[in-house]
Amino acid sequence: MTLFPSSSPVNPPGATDAVGTPVIRRSRPDDFEGVYSLYLDVAAIPGGIARSQDEITPDYVVSFLGRSGAAGLSMVALDGDRIVGEVHAARPVLRAFSHMLTDLTICVRPAYQGRGWGRRLFSEFLRVVREDMPDVRRVELFTRQSNRRAIAFYTSLGFCMEGILRGRIAGVDGDLEDDILMGWVRPPPGDDDDRY
Ligand SMILES: CC(C)(COP(=O)(O)OP(=O)(O)OC[C@H]1O[C@@H](n2cnc3c(N)ncnc32)[C@H](O)[C@@H]1OP(=O)(O)O)[C@@H](O)C(=O)NCCC(=O)NCCS
To answer: Which positions fall inside the N-acetyltransferase domain (predicted)?
Structure first.
């Protein structure tokens, strides 16, 4: 079994590997160290991803890179040779759900946040889904209700809020907060809505 079926770069037109210019490509097995370090960095700041720093283990990273590489999609953003962002999602095992990608997580190193890296990375991820994975009809993710910027971010990329899961996730202060289910659904042929 090939865990990473394609390692070819899928950079937007004009992208180079110069320092400061993002290169966005599919993840490769040798990205492990950089992705592990990225997740440790991001999880150090509460209120973003669900895992806390002590829950970012090598097994966790190996597992999501392997799973999304074999049955889904994982992409990294690089500044020079440094991995500064990663996004992944995978197909569920059951055939009835195999038309979608779920368990999506996106992370950008704190020092790089708010500078357009996340938007470029996620836009490229969705472009690959749209163009190279025609059998993927739906992408879904969860985000905590207090992460308003992330909700606005996903909405601007064509995701809709589909559900409120009450008290599903512990907040920074320990109180429970709602988790928001958001989904992107492949538009019907001919729909040229440029959000997609
Ligand atoms: C959410 C995240 C991936 C966005 O990446 P980014 O590089 O910071 O985002 P960009 O600079 O490309 O900005 C895109 C949008 O993200 C939002 N955003 C910006 N900084 C953000 C931050 N620190 N946290 C959350 N959202 C942010 C804004 O709504 C922005 O919209 P705009 O382009 O209209 O200004 C990134 O901030 C991050 O990794 N946050 C911590 C982990 C996390 O929350 N992951 C998502 C869990 S569901």
So the answer is: 22-187
